Every structure is written in C-alpha cells, then in structure tokens.
C-alpha cells in the first residue's frame, strides 16, 4: 500500500536528531499525546472508544485513550454552553484562531492541552505537551504556536488525502479505511516533525520570498506565462529558488502547507545528489517524483505515479472549504524548482492512494492535453523538453544576482519579519533543513549566538501581553534578565521583532532606540515601510 503514490515518500528523515546547538526540537520529544476523534461514532454508552480514530502513542491502553478523548469532548461541550449567549460574537473572536478552527486550550500543572474542531465541528484533534519535557528540551511553551502546529498537521493530511468527512460517508467499512489512512500518515508525520525553539515562527507560519530585481522577476513571469500558454492543462504553478518562493498561482490558504512540504521534506532529499553532480550534468533538469524513463508512453503506475494534492480554488470565498484534486509535477534545475498542478479529473477523497493513468494521446503536438486530464509520460516529456533550456537560463541569472546576497551581512542581531497580508516571513532564526547548506557546509548568516530559552519565552510573552492583534501600529521595548533586548514594531500590521544581544552599545533604552532606527533603515526600510 505504501508504495502506491505515497506522498510520504519524500517526508525526509534527514537530520532526524537535531544537533544540540540547533534551533529546532523534535515535536515527539515534548509530546505526551496526540489524537483524532469523531465524537458521533462514540455516542452510545459502552462504545465511547469508537470515537477514537487515531491516538499517539499507540502503546496507551484503550481505557486511557477513551478517558483522554472523553475529557476533551466534555471540555468542548461544557464551554460551548458559555458561547451560546448574547456575547457570542465576542466569544467567537476570542475562540477562533487565525485558521478559522474552533479551539480550546487548557493549562495544567504538568501539561498544556490544545483541542481544535474541524469540518463543521464533526472532528476533533487534540495534543498535550509535557512541561517537564519542554523544559529539558529548551522549548518554551506558547499556546498559539501549539494551535498552529495542530492546525498544520490537519492541513497537511487534508492536502494529501482530502477531508476527514470524505472517508466516512457509507458506514463501518469507511471508518476502518479512515483509521488506516490516519495511521499511515501520522505515524510518519509526527516522528519527523520538528518545531522551532522560537515558537513565534511556528505560530506565524509564513513563507519566505526571494527578493530580486524587477527585470529578473519579469523573466520569471515570462517563463511561467509561456509555460501556461504552451501547456494550458497546467492550472496552478509555484516557482522557488533554493528554499525561497518567487512566484505562485494558488490560494493563500494552501500556500504555507505546500511551501513547508516542499522546503522541509521534498527538496532536501535532492540536495546530496545535486552537490555530487559534475559540471556536465549540473544544468540538466529532472522531475523529483514520477517516472525516470520518459522515452516510452507506458502508463504510470505504482511508484511512478504522481502525488495528488487537494487544493482550494483561488476564486472561492475564504469560508468555502471545497477542495479540488491536482496531480503535482515538481521539476528542478540549477536550484530552481517549478511545481505544476494539473487537475485530476478522477480525484476523490481517497486519491492519495489510487491513480488513473492514460497512455493514449490523440495528437502529437506537445500542448495537447492528455485524455481525461491525467498526466502521462508524453506530457512529462514535453514539459521537460520545454523547461530544460528555458529554466536553466532563468535559474542561472537568478544565481548570478543573488550569489553575493545570501544574507551574508553577518548581522549582529536576530530578527523576525512577517507581513500577514502576503504571508511573507523572513528570520535569522528560521530553518529549512538541508536547503540552506552550501557546498562548504556553512549555514549561518549571523555573528550572534542563538537566543537562550528565557529570551525566546520572553518574546512570546511580550507578543501575547503587549502586542495587540487588532492594532495596526505599535512599538514595545523589553529587556531580559540576561541583558538581551527585545524590540517589537508594528507598522501597517507588518511585524518586526529584533533580538539584540548584550552589548556596551545597548546599555540604555536610548541606545537601543538608536540601534533599532539604524537597523530598520539599513535592513528593513524597503519592505517594512513600503
């Protein structure tokens, strides 16, 4: 089963154990439990355990699983009574996170619990983080970040397999199949998931864009336009260089999950082979998933099949949750990656495992869509012929322009910048494992050591207590007990967090204000105030 169109084929286990100096921690190292529940399935007395669709760890006995999920359901139902009041609108504002999922958060002496409800509140996902394990791992607990991690886990499953409700339409057989899918996905996803020791990064969940000159950006747009005109069957496109996004044509609701999958899982698996390529093969493009032999027109089956992802329509309103299945083609050349999406006419809620293929073509022209809109070897071959020369030229120009700009300023501070309207985020603390590693092995762009855990915690506490989500402007200066300074600025809802290490140049608030003004002017003025 796992070899057939397996999206987890590229859930990379590179650097499974982060080094001690890393800015990430394995989620499983601080996790007490994680579950997916369907409350309607456990309504009858004595059958409460049937609401459990997935539970981690699997070693937990069924009575304990029922107790945990029952407590979560009771908590949600009890607090619902308080929301059915005249203050419903206010409560909803406090109760819905940025993803639109209804959530509850509970803090105990030992753990932090977060529950979210999805798909018209039919399903519940829950997670518990151990405070003791978090302390050992230097991971500061920040409830908004835990909510985002839980929401992202659901979105990642939905992207590859469709909605939960699509699995349980007809009866007990569907429930069994649903449990298999959940186990198949989360038993791999959870052990490989890494979270930042700066939880604010996971909470914001932005996408890092590559800055480039106008003429070069027009070259990228021209290439994509020509590609769409030559192959009109391609409906959506993403263009990345290394681990940064240049261009995309898909709903912003899907962008963070897809970007994270590409940069943290799929693309890192290609780095080692590319570094070993000789100069003769360096400009040769290739598909990262699918058939290696494009000389025949044989149907695509098994490991040669392309993954199907379920994405929102760009035209749908934000409250619409309708998903469309797309076959995903990922083509890479000279650090440039083009991700193309073709509508899968035979898609359904289980299309993460079943694929249709078609080897017959009605025309020899390379722009003729395959029968039924399903990707064939011929289409892959024709796109390869088109992109091999065109993409290599554009990628070479991008490499020449940014070669000396890889944030090699050796900055003497740490920063986080986030623009909520575009989802653009850049930070000296973010990590795209294995993608930022150069052939020389260098990964750092800052002269400053990573902030200690108390500073990371203070940043999160300051965001929660002194920075309003509803205010578009604001400024806050905080000094830690270890003499680190934290500066938080909001301009037109754009967020900038500066983390300044102890220094003789930042001994007073006036010094910090002067230093902040210099940093903003020299590094962030173009994107922060534009």
Automatic annotation (TrEMBL):
Record domain CCZ1/INTU/HSP4 first Longin: where: 31-162
Pfam family, one: Intu_longin_2
UniProt region (Disordered), positions on chain: 351-375
Composition skew (Low complexity), residue ranges: 358-371
Coiled coil: none
Domain named CCZ1/INTU second Longin: residues: 234-388
GO cellular component, one term: Mon1-Ccz1 complex
Any one biological process term the GO annotation gives: vesicle-mediated transport
Domain CCZ1/INTU/HPS4 third Longin: 410-517
Protein family per UniProt: Belongs to the CCZ1 family.
Protein name according to UniProt: Uncharacterized protein
Organism: Caenorhabditis briggsae
């Amino acid at each position: 089963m796992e070899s057939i169109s397996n999206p987890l084929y590229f859930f990379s286990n590179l650097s499974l154990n982060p080094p001690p100096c890393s800015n990430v921690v394995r989620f499983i190292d601080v996790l007490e439990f994680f579950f997916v529940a369907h409350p309607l399935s456990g309504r009858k007395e004595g059958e409460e355990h049937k609401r459990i669709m997935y539970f981690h760890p699997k070693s937990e006995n069924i009575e304990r699983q029922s107790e945990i999920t029952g407590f979560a359901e009771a908590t949600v139902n009890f607090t619902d009574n308080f929301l059915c009041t005249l203050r419903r609108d206010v409560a909803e504002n406090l109760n819905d996170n940025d993803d639109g999922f209804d959530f509850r958060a509970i803090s105990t002496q030992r753990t932090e619990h977060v529950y979210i409800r999805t798909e018209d509140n039919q399903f519940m996902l829950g997670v518990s983080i151990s405070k003791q394990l978090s302390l050992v791992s230097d991971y500061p607990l920040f409830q908004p970040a835990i909510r985002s991690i839980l929401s992202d886990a659901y979105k990642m499953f939905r992207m590859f397999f469709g909605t939960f409700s699509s699995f349980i339409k007809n009866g007990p057989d569907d429930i069994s199949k649903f449990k298999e899918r959940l186990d198949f996905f989360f038993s791999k996803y959870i052990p490989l998931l890494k979270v930042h020791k700066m939880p604010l990064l996971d909470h914001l969940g932005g996408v890092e864009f590559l800055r480039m000159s106008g003429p070069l950006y027009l070259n990228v747009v021209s290439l994509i336009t020509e590609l769409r005109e030559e192959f009109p069957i391609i409906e959506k496109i993403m263009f990345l260089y290394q681990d940064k996004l240049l261009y995309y044509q898909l709903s912003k609701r899907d962008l963070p999950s897809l970007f994270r999958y590409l940069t943290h899982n799929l693309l890192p698996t290609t780095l080692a082979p590319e570094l070993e390529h000789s100069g003769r093969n360096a400009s040769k493009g290739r598909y990262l998933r699918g058939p290696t032999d494009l000389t025949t027109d044989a149907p695509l089956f098994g490991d040669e099949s392309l993954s199907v992802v379920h994405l929102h329509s760009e035209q749908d309103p934000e409250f619409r949750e309708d998903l469309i299945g797309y076959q995903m083609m990922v083509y890479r050349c000279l650090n440039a990656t083009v991700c193309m999406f073709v509508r899968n006419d035979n898609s359904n809620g289980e299309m993460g495992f079943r694929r249709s293929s078609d080897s017959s073509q009605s025309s020899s022209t390379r722009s003729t869509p395959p029968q039924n809109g399903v990707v064939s070897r011929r289409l892959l071959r024709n796109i390869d012929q088109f992109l091999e020369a065109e993409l290599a030229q554009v990628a070479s120009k991008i490499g020449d322009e940014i070669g000396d700009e890889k944030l090699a300023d050796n900055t003497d501070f740490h920063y986080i910048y986030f623009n909520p309207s575009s989802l653009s985020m850049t930070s000296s603390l973010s990590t795209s494992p294995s993608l930022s590693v150069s052939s020389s092995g260098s990964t750092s762009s800052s002269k400053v050591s990573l902030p200690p855990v108390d500073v990371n915690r203070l940043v999160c506490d300051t965001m929660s207590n002194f920075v309003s989500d509803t205010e578009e402007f604001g400024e806050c200066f905080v000094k830690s007990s270890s003499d680190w300074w934290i500066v938080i600025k909001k301009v037109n809802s754009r967020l900038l967090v500066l983390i300044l290490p102890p220094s003789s140049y930042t001994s007073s608030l006036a010094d910090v204000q002067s230093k902040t003004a210099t940093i903003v002017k020299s590094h962030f003025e173009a994107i922060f105030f534009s």
